[in-house]
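Case 282 in the screening queue. Each case pairs one protein sequence with one candidate compound; here the compound is zinc ion. For every case the pipeline is the same: read the inputs, emit a complex structure as tokens, and attach any notable structural observations.

Predict complex for case 282.
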Amino acid sequence: MWFKKKVEAKPDEKLKFPDGLWVKCESCGEIQYRKALENNLWICTECRFHFRINCRTYIELLLDDAHLDEQDANLEPVDILDFPEYKKKMKSAQQKTQMREGTVYGFAKIGGAPVVFAAMDFGFMGGSMGSVIGEKIARAIRAAREREHPLIIVSASGGARMQEGIFSLMQMAKTSAELALLNQKKILYISILTHPTTAGVMASYASLGDIIIAEPGALLGFTGPRVIEQTIGEKLPQGFQRSEFMLEHGMVDIVVSRKELRNTLVKILNIVSPANPVNPNG
Ligand SMILES: [Zn+2]
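Case 282 output:
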């Protein structure tokens, strides 16, 4: 790779390829035509790496009629700690994503089965979980319990939002406590882990699903591989903390290609419904 000759495009050739027409795969480095990637649901045609997609695309991909009856869309965070630059970063994330905060939730149907659905958006400040995201996830869980509908959460997150300090960290306990109540009622929770799902989100609701589905090649874990290597002073095995590794080690139940995700959900929802609860003796 180091010796690969760089082929520079001539200036007039460059003009033919406007910005953003080509995308480099962050896994194999292959340059891909954006349109082809889009048609392939943003899965690398060379190595099958699943590029990050936003939560709106998951809504289109997974929900009947691509429709989410979104709840609490107007909730937005308060800069309670007066953290430097937070307001500015928040505003620019809002402009970029056209969302008030990096998670949506609401009511939907999948294969005709009513569900409560939530999805995180990594494009909004790295999917970091602040108090509003925690509150939205907690409300989604509560709605699933009250309606007795299965809950599906698509996670993508770098972890807690440092700009909200302890208010961010307490969302881990809050969402986990809500999930314990959901579990008492024996209502199914399917957690979908996408690239990357790490730290505070992985250490709370993302890893607490009755069924945990991961997209191929996603980085999943609490701390990143580099920090672990530095801490324990050892080289980590290949593929450490990727979906397939986590499947082999029992942290994930199924690794499913994005193309098969909706079908897989339909199959699971057909088997397990609130009228036929998961693990009734558990
Ligand atoms: Zn690739």
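Case 282 observations:
- Residues 6-18 have pLDDT under 50 and may be disordered.
- Residues 25, 27-28, 30, 44, 46-47, 49 surround zinc ion (CB under 6 Å).
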